[in-house]
Amino acid sequence: MAYDPTVLLAQTQFTQPDGFSFDLHKAQSGRNIRHGFLKTPQAMATIVIFPGMSEFIEKYFELSRELQSWGYNVFIFDWPNQGLSTRYLSETMRRHSLGFDTELVDIYEMLQHVLPKNQPLYMLGHSMGGHMALRYFESYIDPRFQKLAVSAPMLDINIQPAILKAIAPTLARFFVLIGMGSSYVLGGRDWDFNFHSKNAEMLSHDEPRNMLHRAWYLRNIKLQLGSATFAWLNEAFLSCEHLADPAHLKNIDVPVLMITAGNDTIVDNKTVPHFIEHISTIEHLNIADSYHEIFMESDTYRDIALNRLKEFFTSS
Question: Which of 51, 124, 260, 283 could form a disulfide with 55 if both were Cys (CB 3.0 to 4.6 A apart)?
Fold first, then answer.
């Protein structure tokens, strides 16, 4: 019998918060960027969420409601080629990229137009979104943003075995060069209900939160994404190399809270000490035994992250 997402998505914590509004921003590139805003009376600041790879606004309803309860506005968006923002290819399932820099341009432009004026801004990025948040701060001078928090940031990609990790960047570049950049990576495919099953248990210890991504994909098939393309993988490797350059990291001068998962099988945490060394304003919290989806984890791990995040954002 097919899985019915209705019961899970009807749970109050996963429903759209009261007052949450959606809109579209048309970038100069011509792409539509879907975004959402949750307003809080007399908000202390606006927290801008950079979601992870293949994620979408609805997945963050629970976290948005919690951030609002702390006294913040919440702004979140769908990356180009994710959620209900413009997809790049006619094969809309493919997680493709025209360049991480290109996507940052779209987001930077949008943030200049749609965010509240004369109010502090904080940024919160998860996984690929954490990577892109760090790229934002090293690439742009945007004094409105005063703090940055990242959870399980994609500082490097966890590829096993080690021999495959060693040759993956060369393979990705090769397939792009021969015109196969829009093809799925080796073993990649369209999404179906069992797409995440082989590693779903390694994303969160919390069963309902672990099912949330799939439940929304079933509720709205337009949200669905399958595997990455060779072009996305190539751009990810290039962007990770760019970000790790100490000359770029020194541009990040706002307070940074980096929260990592002690049992992360999605991103590679081996480079965390390098980032701690070269970002002078960074604070690191590692949550032992947590899986990758820190804000989708069981409360045992999630509360550790939320408590520290609240202290970080509310401290002067």
Answer: 51
In this structure, are residues 278 and 138 in contact, taking their beta carbons and an 8 Å threshold?
no
Per DSSP, the residues of 163-179 read HHHHHHHHHHHHHHHTT
Query: In this predicted model, what pLDDT tens digit does every residue of 56-90 receive, in sequence order?
Result: 999 999 999 999 999 999 999 999 999 999 999 99
The confidence score (pLDDT) of residue 250 equals 96
- In terms of DSSP H, where are the helices of the chain? 6-9, 61-69, 100-114, 128-139, 162-177, 207-219, 230-244, 246-249, 272-278, 299-314
Give the DSSP H or E segment for 229.
Answer: none
Cα distance between residue 276 and residue 273, in whole Å: 5
**Residue 53 pLDDT greater than 50, yes or no:** yes
119 in a domain, yes or no?
yes
Joined together, the tokens standing for residue 204 give 């969160």
Q: Is residue 1 part of a domain?
A: no
pTM (two decimals)? 0.96
Q: What is the pLDDT of residues 221-261, one digit of tens each?
A: 999 999 999 999 999 999 999 999 999 999 999 999 999 99
Q: How far is CA 266 from the centre of its chain?
A: 13
Which domain range does residue 134 map to?
6-314
The answer to whether position 273 is within a domain reads yes
Hey, is 1 helix, strand or coil?
coil
Torsion of CA 42, 44, 50, 54, to 10 degrees: -50
Read off the CATH number of the domain in which 157 is found: 3.40.50.1820
Strands 282-287 and 20-26: unpaired
Closest alpha carbon to 254 in 283, 295, 277 = 283
- With respect to residue 145, please indicate whether it lies within any of the assigned structural domains: yes
Token couple for 64: 């948005």
For 72-100, letters b (16+ CB in 10 Å) and e give bbbbbbbbbbbbbbbbbeeeebbbbbbeb
